[in-house]
Amino acid sequence: MSDQQYQSTDFVYVDPETRTVVGKVEWDKDGEPVSKKRVMKERELPEAKTAKPGPPRKPRERNYPWGSFRSMCGIFKLLGKGKDKEKESSITLDDAISKSMENPYWD
Questions:
Q1: What phi and psi values does residue 27 have, to the nearest 5 degrees?
Q2: Three-state DSSP class for 86?
Q3: Residue 87 has what pLDDT?
Q4: Strands 66-68 and 20-24: what pairing?
Q5: Which of 1, 2, 16, 78 satisfies CB 3.0 to 4.6 Å to 73 for a cystine?
Q6: How many helices (H) and strands (E) does the chain have?
Q7: Number of domains, the chain
């Protein structure tokens, strides 16, 4: 499914690894969202690490996160949109220290 098919108010499941929309949220008869199981790839252990003796652990069950299409675009940057978490500072540390020595309340 293409990301363009959804309106900003549609509730969708998102795959955080591939940053794609999996589908629209399904609701049960009580009005609760149905959890959609996430397909996990099996990881191989590096050669240096070996598995512990005993029965293998049961893999952790994970679900796809869901929310409105608009909020998921902001969080997971689905359409190339999203919030920039950090803006680069236009002033270097040396300049900031010298300005603070001259004037403690500089802009």
A1: -115, 145
A2: coil
A3: 64
A4: unpaired
A5: 78
A6: 2, 3
A7: 1
